[in-house]
Design goal:
Largest sheet of chain B: none
CATH architecture of the largest domain in chain B: Orthogonal Bundle
GO molecular function, one term (chain A): oxidoreductase activity
Number of helices of chain B: 5
Shape of chain A: elongated
Subcellular location (chain A): Cell envelope
Helix content of chain B: 55-70%
Order of helices and strands of chain A: HEEHEHEHEHEEH
Structural class of chain B: mainly alpha
Number of domains of chain B: 2
Number of strands of chain B: 0
Pfam family, one (chain A): Redoxin
Radius of gyration of chain A: 22 Å
CATH class of chain A: Alpha Beta
Strand content of chain A: 15-25%
Helix content of chain A: 25-40%
Largest sheet of chain A: 5 strands, mixed
GO biological process, one term (chain A): cytochrome complex assembly
Distance between the termini of chain A: 69 Å
Largest interface: A-B, 24 and 21 residues
Strand order of the largest sheet of chain A: 5-4-3-6-7
CATH superfamily of chain A: Glutaredoxin
InterPro entries (chain A): Redoxin (IPR013740), Thioredoxin-like_sf (IPR036249), Thioredoxin_domain (IPR013766), Thioredoxin_ResA/DsbE_sf (IPR050553)
Order of helices and strands of chain B: HHHHH
Distance between the termini of chain B: 82 Å
Oligomer: heterodimer
Amino acid sequence: MRRWLLWLPLAVFALVVVFAVRELRAPSDRTVYSAMVGKTVPEFRLEPIVKGKPGLGVADLKSGQPRLLNVFASWCVPCIAEAPQLMKLKAIGVPIDAVAIRDTGPAIAQFLARYGDPYQRIGDDRDSRVQLSLGSSGVPETFVIDGRGVVVKQHVGDIREDDVAALAQAWREAR
Amino acid sequence: MGWFVGLAIWAWLAWACLGNASPLAAQTRPPADYANVQLRDPAQEAQAAALMATLRCLVCQGQSIADSDADMAGDMRALVRRRVAAGESAEEVRDWLIARYGDYVTYDPPVSAVTLPLWLTPLVLLAIGLWIARASFRRRRGHE
């Protein structure tokens, strides 16, 4: 029996320990990202959900001007947390459209009255069809879309204070 | 004494029902058509059901959409049934979802450079096992 083979189990064990320690120190990213980044938004047309605000279609995202597409819902708590940041982006001059997931008109109207209304259009995505076709896996998510309807960037989760600059920058670069 | 126990049980039942009613009331929309309703054609339903068992629920990551009660899983089941009913094959629906979410969405990932070790490792381990067994059998024979 070759002597060095005796050390093999110990070496394997050391390898497992190294792997475990590395994963514990920096847990792997479990976020589900969309594979649609870099691709054109698929065809869709959503009805309006609140009075006085138009619905949303693909044509609106191909207007020649880049914009944000916010996937949100009135029943989603992190959406409340990101509302002030969306208002900030609106104040800078970033046009924002929205897709409301599994929601109702009165609930959305109440949400906008309470937390501010940064949206130009809101589409009624009652069975998450458009959300699924965008590769979005939850609310809230925000997509930066260039003037030709191509997804440039995806932001998963609520927009925090320190995300605003990066999103504004991505929007500017998409022009 | 008996009437008191009966009353307590009734009170508990009323409380349990009310307690269960509130999450339902909190839902903003009823489940989509086809989320919990089977397709009419049994062959199509079987095809859709087999596919749903291999698709990951994206908000509850450890479950398939067939097992999950999440709203989004319901919407994904509706999507699968709708597309199968429209004549798409299970393979086409799966590819549509992979184009949007990557291989992560399926529990039956295609063979690629990343997944190859998953398929090869058992074979390699088996080969090592056979090699060790052969060596130890040979040694034992040598002793006798």
